[in-house]
C-alpha cells in the first residue's frame, strides 16, 4: 500500500519518513492499520525517486499495489506507472481530497517536489475500506518492529546545539527494502563520472581530490549520524571519524533526517534536506562527500548540488552507487573507508 506524505499532518515526525507512528491523528495512520490487518506492506512515498524505486521493486518482486495520489500527479508521472506496469507491477490508484500543490500553482508544485509542501490532504478512507473488504484479514498481525536509535557517539560533537532527538528517523530498513533494489544503476565497484572503474582507481582519484580541495566537506547522513545498534554501521561510523580526523580540515555537516528546516537551521553545520545546495554555497565548498545518506535522498542531493553549485560531488554509497556523482563507490563499508584513510 503506497501512501502520500502530503496526507500526513505537517506537525507529524513521520511526515517525511516511509513509516507511520499510527497515532490516530490522520487517515494515513488508519490506512497503515488496515494494511497490517490485511497482510500488506504500507509505505509512505516521500519523493519521486522513492516512488520510482518502489514501483520497480514491486515489479521485480511480483507485488501488486494499492496507491493514493491526486489525478494531476498521476497525469504528470504517468510514464513511471506505465513502465512499472510493463515490467509486472499491477496496481490500482485511489484519488485523494483537498487542496493539492498543483491547484496552487507552479511555485507550490516546486515546493512539493522538494518536500516543502505543508498543506494536508486526506485519503478517501471509505472507498479504501470498501475495496479491501474483499481481502480477508490475516490470522496474526504483522509485526510492527520499531527500530531504537540514539546519537552516534562518533559524531555527537557535530550535533547542532539546537537539534533535538525526534520520535523517528530514517532507518537502515528504508534502503534495504525498496531502494536497495535499484540494481539497474549498478556499474561495478566504482564510477568516475559515468565511467566504471575499479575501486583502487576510484580511491586514488578521491585522495587527489581531497588533497587539492581548498574547502572539502563531509555530509553525514542518518545511517551514520544515528546509532541503530548495528555493528556494521557502527564500524563504518568509526572509520569515517578516523578519516575526518586524519584529513583534519573537513568541514562536517550533518543531515540527521529529511524534514524541511524551513530556514530554521545553521548552514555551517547542517544541511537542509530540500535545499542541500544552500549549505554548500554558504561555505563555498569545492568538494562534497556524501556518506550515510539513503540512496533515494542521495540521488536528490546530487542533482541539486550539480545544478546549483560547482562542488565536486562524491558518494561513498553502501549499496549500488550513484553514477550521477562525479565519483561514487559501491558497497562502501568500514574497510573501504579505512583504505582511503591509509592512502592519505
Characterize the structure shown:
With 344 residues, this protein is an alpha/beta fold. It has 2 domains: 2-132; 150-343, Rossmann fold (3-Layer(aba) Sandwich). It has 13 helices and 15 strands. The protein has helices at 27-37, 48-61, 71-76, 78-86, 106-113, 125-132, 173-176, 199-212, 222-225, 231-247, 276-283, 295-308, 334-343, and strands at residues 2-4, 43-45, 65-68, 91-94, 96-97, 122-123, 150-151, 190-192, 195-197, 216-220, 226-227, 251-254, 287-291, 312-316, 327-329. A 7-stranded mixed β-sheet has the order 9-8-15-14-13-10-12, sandwiched between helices. It has a two-stranded parallel ribbon with strand order 1-2. Strand 13 (287-291), helix 12 (295-308) and strand 14 form a beta-alpha-beta unit. Helix 10 packs parallel to helix 13 and helix 11 packs across helix 12. The chain starts with a strand and ends with a helix. The mean pLDDT is 86.
Rg, please?
A: 20 Å
CATH 2nd-level architecture of the largest domain? 3-Layer(aba) Sandwich
Q: What's the CATH class of the largest domain, please?
A: Alpha Beta
SSE order: EHEHEHHEEHEHEHEEHEHEHEHEHEEH
Q: Strand percentage, roughly?
A: 5-15%
How would you name the oligomeric state of the polypeptide chains in this document?
Answer: single chain
Amino acid at each position: 500500500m503506497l501512501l502520500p506524505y502530503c496526507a500526513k499532518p505537517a506537525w507529524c515526525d513521520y511526515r517525511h519518513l516511509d513509516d507511520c507512528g499510527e497515532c490516530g491523528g490522520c487517515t494515513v495512520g488508519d490506512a497503515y492499520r488496515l494494511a497490517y490487518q490485511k497482510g500488506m506492506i504500507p509505505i509512505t512515498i516521500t519523493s519521486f525517486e522513492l516512488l520510482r524505486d518502489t514501483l520497480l521493486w514491486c515489479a521485480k518482486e511480483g507485488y501488486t499495489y494499492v496507491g493514493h495520489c491526486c489525478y494531476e500527479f498521476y497525469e504528470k508521472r504517468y510514464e513511471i506507472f506505465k513502465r512499472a506496469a510493463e515490467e509486472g507491477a499491477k496496481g490500482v490508484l485511489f484519488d485523494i481530497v483537498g487542496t493539492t500543490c498543483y491547484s496552487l500553482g507552479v511555485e507550490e508544485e516546486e515546493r512539493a517536489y522538494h518536500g516543502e509542501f505543508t498543506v494536508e490532504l486526506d485519503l478517501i478512507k471509505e472507498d479504501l475500506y470498501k475495496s479491501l473488504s474483499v481481502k480477508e484479514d490475516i490470522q496474526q498481525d504483522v509485526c510492527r518492529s520499531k527500530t531504537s536509535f540514539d546519537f552516534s557517539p562518533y559524531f555527537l560533537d557535530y550535533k547542532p546545539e539546537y537539534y533535538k532527538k525526534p520520535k523517528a528517523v530514517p532507518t537502515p530498513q528504508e534502503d534495504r527494502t525498496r531502494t536497495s533494489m535499484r540494481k539497474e544503476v549498478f556499474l561495478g565497484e566504482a564510477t568516475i563520472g559515468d565511467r566504471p572503474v575499479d575501486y583502487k582507481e576510484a580511491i586514488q582519484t578521491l585522495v587527489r581530490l581531497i588533497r587539492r580541495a581548498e574547502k572539502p566537506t563531509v555530509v553525514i547522513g542518518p545511517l551514520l549520524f544515528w546509532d541503530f545498534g548495528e555493528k556494521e554501521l557502527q564500524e563504518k561510523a568509526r572509520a569515517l571519524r578516523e578519516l575526518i580526523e586524519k584529513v583534519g580540515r573537513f568541514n562536517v555537516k550533518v543531515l540527521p533526517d529529511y524534514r524541511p528546516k524551513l530556514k530554521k537551521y545553521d548552514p555551517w553545520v547542517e544541511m537542509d534536506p530540500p535545499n542541500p545546495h544552500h549549505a554548500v554555497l554558504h561555505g563555498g565548498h569545492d568538494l562534497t562527500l556524501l556518506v550515510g545518506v539513503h540512496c533515494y535522498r542521495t540521488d536528490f542531493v546530487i542533482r541539486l548540488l550539480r545544478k546549483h553549485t560547482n562542488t565536486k560531488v562524491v558518494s561513498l554509497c553502501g549499496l549500488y552507487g550513484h553514477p550521477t556523482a562525479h565519483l561514487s563507490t559501491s558497497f562502501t563499508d568500514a574497510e573501504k573507508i579505512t583504505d582511503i584513510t591509509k592512502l592519505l
